[in-house]
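Below is how a single chain appears once it has passed through the pipeline. First comes the sequence as given, then the structure the pipeline wrote out for it. We keep one example in the README because the format questions we get most often are answered faster by looking than by reading.
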Amino acid sequence: MRWRIGLILILTAMSVLLTNWPVAWQPFLDLVYGEHLYPFIQRLFRSIPYPKRLLVADVFGILILFLLALRLTWLVRKNLIRRWLTATLEVVLWISFGYFLFMMLWGLNYHRETLYSQLKDQGFTTNLSDGHWQFALTETEKVLSKLPADFDYCALTTEPFSFERPAAFALSALALANLPSTATRPVKPSHWSWLYTRLGVAGVYNPFTGEPTFNDRIFQWSKPFVMTHEFGHWVGYAHEYDADILAYWSLWLSPDPIWQYSAWLEWWMEVSAPRTYYDQMSPSLKQGIECYVTYINQQPRWQIRNAFWHIYEVNLNNQGIHEGLRTYKMGEVMALSSYQDWLFKKRNR
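Resulting structure:
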């Protein structure tokens, strides 16, 4: 029993340190973890022979609970006198180790310098001017003109999207932005999509298995963006706005108009465009937005989703992200301004 208590105290202390990483140690974190340890973790994940038709992420939680139940059953039978105290300590030990493992495998990325802050330091604006809005309208219309003549803006199902494309497009964007490359990873649909839908979840990156997953029941044309966003987490961008920025860059720069459209559709959905610019949208773009909104409103939701998202926001706050869930709305402006004033010009130079 003493060794459990000691191990719990050690793991808890280390988790507190990793969660509240001192700002003064930031260079050490970027150098050791960002440039060496996390890439090693990625290579380790890719070396594991995962089943082709099964996402380990889909069964990971159930497997851990099953193993914990077996362990507790054995402990209770072995320690008849102190069985409940022993079982309680064992549960706390597993939770402590799980959180420590989460921080080591991926959670420390929360404390690395963000892509958002790097772009802000380079002078890219977080306020859109008329020139930015007009650029977004113009580029969106260019993409719409490239879509097939029979393109269905309200499609519910089409041919499955390639699981490998998010990696290919993201690597191309990273190279153009002079950012470190990364290991590739397919982004696959989860068998828990029905549960994701009811919780209002579009995608999940599992840091314990290294698998980016997406909800296969979300609006059809939002899937490419969500897939690329989840790949952004695999890259090491823990903040939601960073994963968004990488996803927007990757798809806007991609050669596929359908994947480009997915990014522009998501962008217009998130920015809350002033009425002046909404009135300038083409009927096709308005139709796509309206179908997207209608689809979302028709999806079944559980009230428990509010508690789920509250827990997630608490975790974000614990990691020092005081904006919480608002980080989902912070990447759009920076993504567009940096793309228009830098990557777009650089690509077409």
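The first helix runs from residue 2 to 19.

See the next section for the split statistics.
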